[in-house]
Design brief:
Helices cover 31% and strands 19% of the residues. A five-stranded mixed β-sheet has the order 2-1-3-4-5, sandwiched between helices. It has a four-stranded mixed β-sheet with strand order 7-6-8-9, with helices on one face. α7 packs parallel to α8.
């Protein structure tokens, strides 16, 4: 935040959906550092919107600290990419942007992380790349629900286990594309995971169940019966 006498702003940036569902924790951390918050994805305010607000409020320098409290999320380089894109596109006066060189993985590490920064110059890579032109060749897409109930009931632990087991089985993005989502329903079965295009839904997916889903379903092609949810597809008229 800024005031007429305080032109240096600190901005804590949630890197993933994990920080979006833990907004209150991020807000408490920001208050302790007299900072504001933004999100790189899946929540408001966006990083671009908050940078615009701070610039319009008169900030001369903005220190960006990426925060990743969840199991996974984009690398720190994406914070620089998005910040640099905003800086290049900004019409009018632009504040100096200083980006922490590593991510804070807990509220306690924010101060130390914020102490080591690198300025945005505008020469950073853009938002496009030839490597991102086409849809990946994955066989399965796993949708991990990170809605409020799933998160409260352990979705993060399941996500960690699933990513760990995929690596152990040598399954990369071209085999299994993992996507964290908002609420998928049915909430009473939280944490919920669905596997596409198989149209298989799982409920009460803890770390052990996530490991079985990888080993039995994604690697061996056999859905896990013990956690599979009934799927009643509504047919279209005329089918």
């Amino acid at each position: 935040m800024t005031s007429p006498t305080q032109r240096r702003a600190v901005l804590l940036v949630g890197m993933s959906i994990g920080e979006a569902v833990r907004r209150d924790e991020l807000l408490r951390t920001a208050a302790a550092h007299r900072a504001s918050i933004a999100f790189l994805q899946q929540a408001d305010p966006s990083l671009s919107a908050e940078l615009t607000r701070l610039a319009d409020a008169g900030a001369e320098t903005v220190v960006l600290v990426g925060v990743r409290l969840a199991a996974s999320g984009p690398a720190q380089s994406w914070l620089r990419r998005i910040a640099a894109h905003w800086w290049r596109e900004r019409a009018g006066r632009r504040p100096e942007l200083l980006v922490a060189t590593r991510l804070a993985d807990s509220p306690e590490t924010v101060a130390a992380v914020a102490a080591v920064t690198k300025a945005v110059t505008g020469s950073e890579p853009g938002l496009t790349s030839a490597a991102w032109e086409e849809v990946t060749g994955h066989r399965h897409q796993v949708l991990l629900c990170r809605g409020p109930r799933c998160t409260a009931l352990g979705a993060e632990e399941g996500a960690r286990a699933l990513v760990r087991e995929l690596a152990a089985h040598g399954l990369g993005d071209d085999d299994v594309l993992v996507t964290q989502t908002g609420c998928q329903f049915p909430c009473n079965q939280a944490p919920v995971v669905s596997v596409q295009p198989d149209d298989v839904w799982y409920g009460r997916v803890d770390a052990a169940a996530a490991g079985r889903i990888v080993a039995e379903h994604l690697a061996a092609g056999r859905p896990v019966g013990s956690h599979r949810l009934p799927r009643h597809r509504k047919e279209r008229p005329g089918d």
